[in-house]
Here is the input.
Amino acid sequence: MKRSQKILVTAVLSAASALAMNAATASSIANTPHNLGSGNNFDKTPSGNSPSNHSNNTAEICVFCHTPHGGDNTAAVPIWNRKLGIGGDNTNLQYKRYSSLGTTTFDASEAPIGSVTIACLSCHDGTQAIDNIMNLPGSGGYNSTTGARIGNFVGGDTDGNGKLGDPAKIVQNLTTDLSNDHPVSMQFGGGGVSVGTPTPAKTVDPDFHVPQNMAAPSTSTLQKLWYIESGSNSLNPTGRDREDIILYTRNELGTLQPFVECGSCHDPHNSENQTFLRISNTGANAPADSLGRTFPLANGGPSALCLTCHNK
Here is the structure.
């Protein structure tokens, strides 16, 4: 091989390697607003405020949500390091829900706010500091009753007490009024699909796609996993992947069936799409977001996320 050819091949391989590294970096939680440690290198928050929300006391990332020991075992998420419920009171789950509007098109039944949604709300309802956790980094910082602030926390989206600030200016603060947000903790498609009537059963509401069922009917919630295939661009057309819409199994209404939760549309660990969406609603050529990110791995198109579930 000629020297010029070797140089060209080396350059191509180096470029490919750089692209792969950039893709890996882009999908890392370390490079998202969910990194609340000192390694958060954004100049501002997604709302456009400065400084970015982070603590200068620790470079740890996972600790703001998870702990290897002493997690809240009432949470339907792994080793959760935060108190649940309004203000961290896990007996107070009195969120105002979408059903309170009494719209005629809402034909699903609801379970109490819970599942993975309650974990998201432990930051995003704005009632407790987002750096208040049960097990602080290092040894000797465990307090399962009240938790403790990591400290030295700054944030352009916080109110001075570490809580998400004015909801009129910060859409990430959902407050305890969820009636102006997409319904959560509700039956998918108005019901009709359950362990007793698995796919290819029909949803009650024909305006919703039937979820794919990965497992045989079972009475165990651990063996039941529903999801909506993300379409022709799916990473795994024959099985569930991170771009599919997850429907979470709950049985509060008397039978195991799929429910819509925050995690159905958002993946808090995956930053390939704006606002942690599992499927981009805009596509690869979308303009940069408020943090200057362009999301070259965008996998959707106009309303692609919405249309994955809604048969419109």
User: Anything to note?
Assistant: Residues 1-31 form one domain. Residues 1-26 have pLDDT under 50 and may be disordered. The two ends are 56 Å apart (CA to CA). Helices lie at 3-26, 115-124, 262-265, 304-309.
